[in-house]
Amino acid sequence: MEIIANYGTILVAIAAVFGFVMAWGIGANDVANAMGTSVGSGVLTIKRAVLIAMIFEFSGAYLAGGEVTNTVRQGIINPALFAKDPHIMVFGMIAALLAAGTWLLIASYKGWPVSTTHSIVGAIIGFACVTAGPQTVEWSKLSGIIGSWIITPIIAGVIAYLLFTSAQLLIFKHENPILAAKRYVPGYMFLAGFVLSLVTIKKGLSHVGLNVGDIQGYLLAIAIGLVIALAGRLLINRLHIDPHADQQMHYTNVEKIFGILMIMTACSMAFAHGSNDVANAIGPLAAVVSIIAHGGVIGTQAQIAWWILPLGGLGIVAGLAILGHHVIATVGKGITHLTPSRGFAAELSAATTVVIASGTGLPISTTQTLVGAILGVGMARGIGALNLGIVRKIVVSWVITLPAGAVFAIVFYYILRACF
What we know:
This protein has helices at 2-40, 46-64, 66-75, 86-110, 116-132, 139-172, 177-204, 214-237, 247-293, 308-323, 325-334, 340-360, 366-379, 388-419. It is mainly α and 420 residues long. α4 (86-110) packs antiparallel against α9 (247-293), α9 (247-293) packs parallel to α12 and α12 packs antiparallel against α13.
């Protein structure tokens, strides 16, 4: 209690800096989840991808990030077990932020697309086990989170497989692919617009004081999806395509149409990623601020300070703008060859999976979700379309991440205790 009373402001400042570092690492590594397929398929340049991601990552973090934050802050460990000695919780969460952020920066520099969720969960478990024992960890809730790391890539892969297969059947195998694309692509645009707007309406607007009922929310999401589909049709009709070109040129022109759709799915995935993964940075920060603001009292519920969500959003934007290009190359080009039609299927399926998880408050790994989606697209073309060597390296990096976060957190925790 005495440490918190004497150094409360300093501890909040340190936690804010380390929270920003963690958010920076998320942006540097997980930018590939939102933008890797768009850049890898050639639809967007890195500069344009960063600009789009800056807008939608920040919007997702600020508008729809609060629900998942509660799970990360309160669901992994039992805060009540730290009630007698709250400074352990404070130092532990600060150490977890720095540990996860450090590992993410290392992985990003190496081009490894690791899980930011693994990083922060491993870090929190690491400090909790060495300070208060394994009983501090909510193993029942953790098992649900770990289960999602397996289930969500499968779900995303199945959705991506179905989306890409439907595009093949409805468009690419049609006797007139261009006509079929003009007919069916707006439907895919509607789906992307519906998913993006629904999570904003149902989970995001409440954080800015706007509450929309379930029926009204679905109706509004449908309306927005229809508007986006109509706008997409108008844009497609403006493309200059030679109807008398050979079949290969038809396929090329269809991919141009899917390029428009890729921009939509890129925005959707960026928003979804921001809403879900900002929790990994601000969840521990919110816990520290709450404990210090209440004089060392660890509560089960706490209001997230107004400045925490924007801090996380800005950190994500800074990280992806400065260091994100390393991981983009791995995810966008390393796993399988992506075209706009393949990239759209991967991004839209991953976005759909992530926004569902974000709405339920379950912090999934967007890295594993997108990789699962890309694998689903690759499997639709056969196992030979996948670079299994890259896939193996990615899986190994995932396995290393959780213990790496734990080890870093333990080291940083004892350093902080020595300093204070």
